[in-house]
Each structure stands twice: as C-alpha cells, then as structure tokens.
Design a protein that fits this description.
β4 (196-203) and β5 form a beta hairpin. The protein has a five-stranded mixed beta sheet with strand order 3-4-5-6-7. Strands 1-2 form a two-stranded antiparallel ribbon. It is 44% helix and 16% strand. α2 (25-34) crosses α8 (124-136). The protein folds into two domains: 5-19 and 139-277, Trna Endonuclease, Chain: A, domain 1; 25-138, no CATH class. The chain has helices at residues 5-10, 25-34, 36-42, 51-61, 69-72, 100-109, 112-117, 124-136, 140-158, 173-180, 220-236, 257-266, 273-277; strands at residues 79-84, 87-92, 167-172, 196-203, 206-214, 242-249, 270-271.
C-alpha cells in the first residue's frame, strides 16, 4: 500500500535535543583545564600599571603562555592574520615568529591589554570558560547529526542487529562492494566517486545501505540533499540484493517540502522517527 506523503510529513518532529545538546560542559571543562596554568599566569596582568613590560617578562619566563592568547579572542587557530595599512602580519602563537614588541603591539591594538589592565574581567579562567560556552553553540549542528545517528542506531540494535556482524557503521561504497561482493558502480558514476553510508544492514542476504539526518531549521542544503538522494534511489533500484534506505526527520523540511516529496515518491524505504518507533527497521 502506497503511503500518503502529507500524513507522513505531519509526523515530523520539532527537535531531538537531549540533555547535553545545548552545551557540552564536559568538553568545555576539559578545554579550559588544559590551559588553566597558562591562564592563571596571565591573571597576574589584571590591573597591572606596567602591563607591557610585565607581559614581556612573562613571555621570557614562560614562553608557552603565548599559546593561550588566541582563545582570549575566541579563536582556536594558532595563527592570526592582521592587515595593518600596508603590511600583513601572520602571528604564530605556537612559537614567536616576530620580535616580542610586535606581540606587545598585537595585545594593545586588539584590545586585550585594555581588557586586562582596566579590570574589565577578574579572572581569565572564568573569562575563557564563557568564551568556550559561546563557541560550543557552533557545535550544535554537528551534535544534532550525532544524536540522530545515535537514535537510529538504537532502533537498529532494538531490531536485533549486531554491530560488525549484521550492521556496520560508516562504510564506504568500496567497502560494501568488497565485503558483500556487490557492484555499486551505478551509484558512483561508474566508479569515479566514492560514497560513505552511515549504516549498512544485512538481512537475509540483502544489503541495506542507510543514510540518516535531522534538520531542525531550513536551509539550501535540504533541497540539494533531497535531490541527491532521489538520484541515489533511482540509480540503486535495479541493483540485485541491495536497497538504499534514508532515515530523516525535522521541521526544517518545511522549506524543502516539494523536493522531499519527489524523493518520497520514488523511494519506498524513506523513514522518519515515527516510522522507526512503529517498527520500520524490523519490517525491512
């Protein structure tokens, strides 16, 4: 029986956020703890009346302190580029690549000395902890993908599949071909492109190559994803003992509904989380 797209679409979920989705405090504490000594050394500059000379003295005595300066500007890179009128600087914060006076100038002109000498902050450990919280929000998009994969994997295990025996994570097309003696050239532009599947399931000598994703917000990527998976569905439909499966969900699909429906019409094995709750994997 052909499923109704409108009914299926209405069952999409708003979010799949878990308790640690919003901020990964374990990662934040770990990152801060790794540079805690250097930050506490720089704490001596807070309220300094002779900050430039004291900074030079610190770098002379504790050269490793230089490595924590980028995070004070919310940067993880150890090289920072500065365009200054007719000159471009590339400051290295693993090892000094300019005279120390240029780093003094860097600290002054970026506002870091002002931050420290005027008591705008009281403790660099607390300050960097706040920076890490802010930067961690950029990881939420990746965490959504991880959460969706974990949810799908839980349903796979619940359905009785055993890791590395009847289900595998992150297998390339080439690995699938070698392990299961399949010819997947139809879905790789005759071997010119490689493809990595999130999960590969084995049931009754049939191979199910699976992709999974969750979209909580709109974006141009959704249309591209729907179109590429439609192509993949059409290219793989005549491959013996092989099926492409797509697990997807999220209200972000509202902005790409038409493209998703086109894929839905040609891919019988497209499922959302409600489908999984109702036994879609068991019924493959």
């Amino acid at each position: 029986m052909k499923r109704d797209f409108n009914s299926w679409f209405k069952s999409m979920k708003d979010n799949i956020a878990t308790w640690d989705y919003y901020t990964d405090f374990k990662k934040i504490y770990k990152n801060v703890n790794e540079i805690k000594i250097e930050l506490n050394i720089l704490n001596s500059l807070i309220g300094s009346k002779n900050i430039e000379q004291e900074f030079v003295n610190i770098i002379d005595s504790y050269p490793n302190v230089i490595k924590v300066i980028p995070i004070l500007l919310a940067k993880r890179e150890k090289e920072i580029k500065i365009n200054d009128t007719n000159k471009e600087y590339i400051f290295n914060f693993n090892k000094l690549n300019y005279e120390i006076n240029e780093y003094v100038r860097f600290m002054r002109l970026t506002g870091l000395f002002d931050l420290l000498e005027n008591h705008i902050i009281n403790n660099l450990v607390d300050y960097v902890s706040g920076i890490e919280v802010g930067m961690d929000t950029n990881s939420r998009k990746n965490r959504t993908g991880d959460i969706m994969e974990n949810l799908v994997e839980a349903f796979i295990v619940k359905a009785g599949y055993v890791k590395n025996k009847t289900y595998f994570k992150e297998m390339t097309k080439s690995e699938v071909e070698r392990r299961f003696n399949l010819d997947l050239s139809n879905i790789s532009n005759q071997g010119k492109t490689e493809k990595r599947f999130d999960f590969v399931l084995v049931k009754n000598n049939h191979i199910y190559a699976c992709e999974c994703n969750f979209y909580g917000s709109n974006g141009s990527k959704l249309n591209e994803t729907a179109r590429s998976y439609k192509t993949l569905a059409l290219e793989s439909k005549d491959i013996p003992n092989f099926s492409f499966v797509w697990f997807t969900d999220g209200k972000g699909w509202n902005g790409a509904r038409h493209n998703l429906e086109e894929t839905f019409d040609v891919l019988d094995t497209i499922y959302n989380l409600k489908d999984l709750e109702e036994g879609a994997i068991e019924n493959l």
